[in-house]
Specification:
This protein has nine helices and seven strands, in the order H-E-H-H-E-E-H-E-H-E-E-E-H-H-H-H. By secondary structure, the chain is an alpha+beta fold. Pfam families: PaaX, PaaX_C, PaaX_M. InterPro entries: PaaX-like_central, PaaX-like_N, PaaX_C, WH-like_DNA-bd_sf.
Length: 239
């Protein structure tokens, strides 16, 4: 994997911080621990303010509302849980409008994917009805929702729609990489990849995945790394 840029290192620490802010001196020291020179960090901070990624108040940098919304969404997705037992129904969203502007169509598709729906065919999105990810389409006149029970084998349907085999293989690769990588920048890079992968976790019912399904292990791996990162940050503050 390509090492993270200074911008990505800064975002990694702020997206994982609550509140999502830090003094400039702390960000510079933190970035140095990953091999990034202070001058490079200062340039990145200036560019991030200009790009609308960060707000600056005196000597403190904070995520802007746009990235704060991203953090909140990321936190919700990473903490999402599967409701058991599953009643074998599937939540279905049907796009009933036509002729919408391309940006509106793209935004709806992104929202559905972010909330773990898969497209069965154009305009028809489904997933097992076993999670509540705070997506409320009832007020959207462009869609209709219903609960259905497919006649086909749910295991085959889940595999076809969500490509569970590939997701599991990637998760296992990331777990192995984190377990065998000692270098700080490489570990941070792997952790960022883990977050991206967890944000695509299909959150399947246990009935639809094998006993070796690695999602819980991957979440534990990331949780352990967050503790490691917090310990590093605290140790840097004490020096």
């Amino acid at each position: 994997m390509r090492p993270l840029s200074a911008r990505s290192v800064i975002l990694s620490v702020l997206l994982g911080a609550h509140p999502p802010e830090a003094p400039v001196a702390e960000l510079i020291t933190f970035a140095e621990a990953f091999g990034i020179q202070p001058t490079t960090t200062r340039v990145a901070l200036t560019r991030m303010v200009a790009a609308g990624d960060l707000d600056r108040t005196d000597t403190t940098y904070r995520l802007t509302p746009r990235l704060l919304a991203r953090q909140q969404h990321q936190d919700r997705m990473l903490s999402a849980t599967v409701e058991e037992p599953w009643d074998r129904t599937w939540r279905t969203v049907i796009v009933v409008s036509s002729g919408d502007p391309a940006p509106a169509r793209a935004a709806l598709r992104t929202s559905l994917r972010d909330h773990r729906f898969a497209e069965l065919r154009e305009g028809v999105w489904i997933r097992p009805h076993n999670i509540d990810l705070d997506w409320r389409p009832a007020d959207n006149p462009r869609v209709e929702t219903l609960t259905a029970t497919p006649d086909t084998d749910p295991h085959h349907l889940a595999q076809r729609l969500f490509d569970l085999t590939t997701w599991a293989e990637t998760a296992t690769t990331l777990i192995t990489a984190m377990d065998h990588t000692p270098a700080p920048m490489a570990r941070l890079t792997i952790a960022a990849a883990i977050v991206r992968h967890l944000l695509t976790d299909p959150l399947m019912p246990t009935e639809l995945v094998p006993d070796t399904w690695p999602a819980a292990h991957l979440r534990a791996t990331y949780a352990n790394y967050r503790h490691e990162l917090a310990d590093l940050r605290n140790s840097l503050l004490q020096t």
